[in-house]
């Protein structure tokens, strides 16, 4: 049975405004867990559900899917002072789980994303490992702190990243985020991780994916990192979303 779809308005204390969130709910049974799906750059909260039949793919599990709005924020505490990190990690779950009448433990909450949202899912999952049992990424833009799209004049990501050499870039760089997480909670306190990228993606995206995989392996962090057919496109993401959801449902013990 397919999930139902609605739009929830999320009042954010961190951002001092209200933003929309697409919410998919299992019909005929209460949800036992929530996955927070983060959109990519040049996208919006509703697009993943518009491009991929998430309602059908999530049907096997008592699982709610929440897709918040993130603009071009990278889902971090931006150089411009916009605290999308706290909004995504606290304000969105507060609103979603209040709507569902749930107060979920870490074991029943996961975060995932594609492209910019993959970067955000890794950042949130490692910055707040006590809040997420698992994180997953499709075509994660893990090189945003140095990649061309985060550097060119007029890039919409510059507000969040700041200029080249900024403290924000150094702070949100994935290996720095990983080092802080390991220092704070150790190997066994980290979320389960699944990372996939297209073998025909931009070389910068592929290089960043491989570099993160090496950093995780060198640190002894259990994770899955795969390269799959396809590029940085909805064709690839549509093909891989079932595997992403299956991984997360397993990690959430559904």
Write a concise keyword list for the protein shown above:
254 residues, alpha/beta, Rossmann fold, 8-stranded mixed sheet, 9 helices
Question: How would you describe what is shown here?
Answer:
The chain has 254 residues and is an alpha/beta fold. The protein has one domain: Rossmann fold (3-Layer(aba) Sandwich), CATH 3.40.50. It has nine helices and eight strands. An eight-stranded mixed beta sheet has the order 1-2-4-3-5-6-7-8, sandwiched between helices. Strand 5, helix 4 and strand 6 form a beta-alpha-beta unit. Helix 4 runs parallel beside helix 7. The protein is globular and about 50 Å long. The chain starts with a strand and ends with a helix. The mean pLDDT is 97.
Care to give the gist of this entry?
The protein is of the alpha/beta class and about 250 residues long. The chain contains 9 helices and 8 strands.
Give the secondary structure arrangement, pairings included.
Elements: E1 4-12, E2 17-25, E3 33-38, H1 47-51, H2 54-57, E4 63-68, H3 84-100, E5 109-114, H4 116-127, E6 134-138, H5 158-161, H6 167-172, H7 174-185, E7 192-198, H8 203-218, E8 224-228, H9 234-251
Helix pairs in contact: 4-7
Class from secondary-structure proportions? alpha/beta
CATH class categorisation: Alpha Beta
Strand order of the largest sheet: 1-2-4-3-5-6-7-8
Mean pLDDT: 97
